[in-house]
User: Which sequence fits this backbone?
């Protein structure tokens, strides 16, 4: 059986430059800037299929919006992994695929020219001192040209911090404006290292170093005015196995249903560990937002019951419409003095790939979260977009038959008073048209204002950003 969303998990070969897109409806006159998107776009190396959505080769997309018009460019990131797939083989260990297959020729590795190693940075896009960079969970950022999307090279860090795993979701500190992230160093002894990186620098300053015996898989984390919170789910790894097993990245991690989730709260003012707060097991990729309310830390997270979603996102499971479970927006409250954690579901609507009005509400109280939504049980694909009011639990949804949207990016209207005054931008697969489109919603009413048709199907991607 072929799912009608299958083109979203099918390789795209075409790369186009500055194509004017036909626009349906009316773009707001004030909307001017560029939406950059990142995501996997090739799902096999020659005849060898990748196993997982997260393994696909990174492609960048650029929608330049202004004067009521949209122009579109897309380009693969030129990485060592991309060049290996061009040659018909999986060259490196990926999230859930590995090069140790019978198709794999040792000759290739032996005589390959020394790669200026650019990783398969298919997850996110973040501005750094070196310009726009594409990120994945290997701590090597790939910088690219904002106009042509051409790969420039590795945006090299100039410090000597050591580590092998990081997140593609650095935060901006609400207090200092620095980029903040964590870097996991491992070996005989392993450490979560929380660092800050001034926006004008490629040097990371270590803030906190927390020893950990079995590190957890953490795709993102939370930040508030004063704290960084690592939510460590009971999906953990023996670091030596990760180093030595030769298995794909995620295959080294084990879910422990009897385990706990630990919230590691780091005080960014002095780098101390404020505490380690425990609650029942759950799993998440994405934190929505967090803030301080006196001695209580409020963390909003797209939470799953367990880590089985990782398997539900394998390409064969998705193509065969195997049922998984969607995340729900969930609030965790940590009482720092009492040491207790409580939780409750924020809304009845499933939510993933969450975005907020980040510029004004990151690390602060807020009201609106936007995300993709889908069936609470079913294949884990987006069937619509949702806007959740985290104060009331109310929600609005946008959907169209056989339309599959990606992450909705909120763009505030200049000079706006209301938190939700602006638009939401999402790249949507239109299975009937056989193409993708950029959809523009009014963020307040959640009604569609305009759409711009792309000349091909864009495979389902992860994250991106809007630059005014
Ligand atoms: C080695 C490794 C990799 O929502 C999207 C999430 C995407 C996540 C991705 C694409 C994660 C990819 C992770 C390729 C990990 C690679 C690491 C970090 C440590 C090395 O020692 C081993 C190369 C497998
Ligand atoms: Co993510």
Assistant:
């Amino acid at each position: 059986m072929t799912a009608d969303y299958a083109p979203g998990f099918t390789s795209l070969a075409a790369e186009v430059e500055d194509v004017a897109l036909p626009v349906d409806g009316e773009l707001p006159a004030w909307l001017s800037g560029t939406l950059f998107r990142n995501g996997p776009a090739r799902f096999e190396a020659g005849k060898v299929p990748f196993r997982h959505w997260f393994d696909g080769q990174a492609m960048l997309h650029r929608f330049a919006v202004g004067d009521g018009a949209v122009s579109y460019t897309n380009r693969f990131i030129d990485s060592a992994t991309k060049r290996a797939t061009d040659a018909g083989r999986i060259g490196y260990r990926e999230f859930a695929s590995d090069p140790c297959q019978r198709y794999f020729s040792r000759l290739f590795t032996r005589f390959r020219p020394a790669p200026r190693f650019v990783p398969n940075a298919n997850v996110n896009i973040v501005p750094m001192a070196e310009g726009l960079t594409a990120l994945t969970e290997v701590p090597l950022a790939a910088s690219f040209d904002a106009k042509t999307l051409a790969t420039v090279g590795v945006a090299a860090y100039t410090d000597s911090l050591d580590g092998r795993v990081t997140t593609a979701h650095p935060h901006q500190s609400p207090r200092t404006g620095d980029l903040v992230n964590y870097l996991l160093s491992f070996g005989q002894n392993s450490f979560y290292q929380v660092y800050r990186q001034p926006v004008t620098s490629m040097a990371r300053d270590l803030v906190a170093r927390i020893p950990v015996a079995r590190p957890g898989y953490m795709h993102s984390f939370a930040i508030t005015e004063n704290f960084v919170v690592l939510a460590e789910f009971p999906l953990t790894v023996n670091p030596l196995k990760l180093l030595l097993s030769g298995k794909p990245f995620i295959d080294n991690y084990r879910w422990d249903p009897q385990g706990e989730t630990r919230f590691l709260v780091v005080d960014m003012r002095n780098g101390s560990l404020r505490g380690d707060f425990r609650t029942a097991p759950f799993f998440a990729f994405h934190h929505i937002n967090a803030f301080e309310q006196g001695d209580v830390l409020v963390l909003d997270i797209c939470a799953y019951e367990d880590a089985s979603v990782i398997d539900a996102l394998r390409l064969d499971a998705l193509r065969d419409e195997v049922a998984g479970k969607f995340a729900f927006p969930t609030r965790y409250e940590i009482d720092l003095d009492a040491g207790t954690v409580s939780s409750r579901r924020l809304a009845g609507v499933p939510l993933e790939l969450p975005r907020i009005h980040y510029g004004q509400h990151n690390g602060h109280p807020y009201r609106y979260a936007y995300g993709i939504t889908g069936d609470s049980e079913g294949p884990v694909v987006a069937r619509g977009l949702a806007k959740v009011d985290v104060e009331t639990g109310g929600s609005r949804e946008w959907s169209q038959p056989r339309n599959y949207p990606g992450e909705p990016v909120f763009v505030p209207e200049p000079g706006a008073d209301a938190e939700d005054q602006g638009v939401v931008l999402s790249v949507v697969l239109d299975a009937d048209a056989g193409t993708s489109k950029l959809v523009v919603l009014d963020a307040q009413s959640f009604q569609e204002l305009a759409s711009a048709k792309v000349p091909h199907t864009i495979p389902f991607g992860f994250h991106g950003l809007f630059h005014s």
